[in-house]
Design brief:
Blueprint: H1 3-8, H2 18-27, H3 33-47, H4 57-67, H5 69-81, H6 91-94, H7 103-122, H8 128-142, H9 154-157, H10 164-174, H11 180-198, H12 202-207, H13 213-240, H14 242-248, H15 250-260, H16 265-268, H17 272-293
Helix pairs in contact: 3-4, 3-10, 3-17, 4-7, 4-10, 5-7, 5-8, 7-8, 8-10, 11-13, 13-14, 13-15
Length: 294
């Protein structure tokens, strides 16, 4: 299904009602909202030169968009173009919403994409490439003709898109691009996080004929890949600040604990919203300490 097909099949919106609104909220994956909004906070904190700058218009607007609308865009595109694949995915039956061809979801995708483009028109110029880059990669990851999620290792590499909201916030507040090591470290972290999250989907994806980095490597191989890339992320952050390196070293250590313990990745996967929130909180508090106490 192309963008034109998506628009053609979305001529009139369904009237909103509680069931539709609830479905769209579920589709936006509330557990993962901070995966996009969290980097905005981190980027803002490390770019700011005063406490007042934390609540300036640009980072507030970026946070508002990347908290819910951007998640609905990203996961809505995924659900629309993965409808056939998701029939075999058990996650869609309980923790997530299975797309059933409803017009409300297609309208939500188009509306949130439009909001993203509108945001790109009002944020400071240096932030624009980061916002547009997120929209482009978010679409290309799931939608044809590129459909990067089915082209390993591009499925993993393209998920650096989770770093782009932080880059947008940093650029908007500081007026310059964020440190290259910070972008690279975050990109590597996101690559490993994506492949780790794909491990529970290995069997459903194989049954549907979908090839990913996780299906190509297998469960054990994908776990090793995640550990190596997370180590690279920790090493990259250590070049920026050794304390950041120690913080991100927690990920490969946790992976070893999972692999050696009596815990399946399918179960551990649902721990990571909390794990990532704690890591992001520590990251942010370090930035606030620097801002307030020098």
């Amino acid at each position: 299904m192309s963008l034109r097909t998506l628009i053609d099949r979305t001529r009139l919106p369904d009237l909103p009602h509680s069931g539709t609104l609830r479905t769209q909220l579920v589709r936006s994956r509330p557990r993962f909202w901070l995966y996009l909004a969290g980097p905005v906070i981190v980027g803002t904190v490390f770019a700011a030169d005063s406490v007042d700058a934390l609540l300036s218009a640009a980072p507030v607007a970026l946070f508002a968009y990347f908290l819910v609308p951007a998640n609905l865009f990203l996961y809505g595109v995924n659900d629309v173009f993965d409808a056939d694949v998701d029939r075999q995915n058990p996650k869609k039956a309980d923790r997530e919403a299975r797309y059933r061809g409803d017009r409300a979801t297609r309208w939500a995708v188009l509306t949130t994409a439009g909001l993203g483009l509108a945001l790109a028109l009002v944020v400071p110029g240096r932030a624009v490439p980061w916002v547009v880059g997120f929209l482009a990669l978010g679409w290309a990851y799931s939608a044809p003709p590129l459909r990067l999620k089915t082209r390993p290792p591009l499925d993993s590499v393209s998920n650096g898109l989770y770093v782009l909201p932080g880059g947008a916030a940093y650029a908007a507040v500081a007026g310059t691009a964020p440190p290259a090591l910070a972008v690279l470290g975050g990109w590597l972290w996101a690559m490993a996080m994506h492949t780790f999250s794909a491990i529970p989907d290995v069997e459903p994806d194989r049954q549907a004929g979908i090839e990913t980095t996780a299906t190509r490597l297998g469960r054990r191989g994908a776990a090793v890949y995640c550990g190596v890339v997370w180590l690279l992320a920790a090493g990259t952050f250590a070049l920026l600040d050794y304390r950041l390196g120690l913080l991100f070293l927690a990920y490969p250590v946790l992976l070893v604990v999972i692999e050696l313990g009596d815990v399946t990745v399918d179960r551990a996967y649902w721990w990571f919203p909390a794990v990532n929130t704690l890591a992001g909180m520590a990251f942010t508090l370090g930035g606030l300490w620097r801002l307030v106490y020098g």
